[in-house]
Amino acid sequence: MKLSDEWFTSLSENEAGQLVTVMGRDNLSEFRNSGKLNDRIEVTWKYEPDANGLITEPVGKLMEAVETSLQKALEKDKLAIMTSIYTGGGEKIWVFYVRNINAFGECLNEALTSFELLPISIYTEHDPDWEEYLDMYEMKDWRQD
Prior knowledge:
Elements (H helix, E strand, L loop, with lengths): L6 E7 L5 E7 L3 H5 L5 E8 L10 H19 L4 E9 L2 E8 L2 H11 L8 E7 L4 H7 L8
Antiparallel strand pairs: 1-2, 2-4, 3-5, 3-6, 4-5
Helix pairs in contact: 2-3
């Protein structure tokens, strides 16, 4: 299975009505249908937005470095696939579908060793049908071109 690096961007709102940018990964049908990535892990970083509701530049640069490190480490052996990224409303959420939750945790810790303690939380859920991904993917047709 070849992992695509094709993404689309769409806009949505959170429950409080705040604007959220959604980045979704395209062409993941083989991974979704393989039956090997049955658990979803969401890594959430809450941040204090600036006056315009955006991420401040220093925090944004750090988030970008963390994202790159996570994606590189977790996707190297296809232990996990980053499927979507939600940014807005004072939080950034990276969504992964994973083969093994414990191995994901170990790899995540190793990928983040070069960073100071980060304000992240982790949520896991068994999602063998990729329901969250399919819900997010429906936004592709609503994206702003």
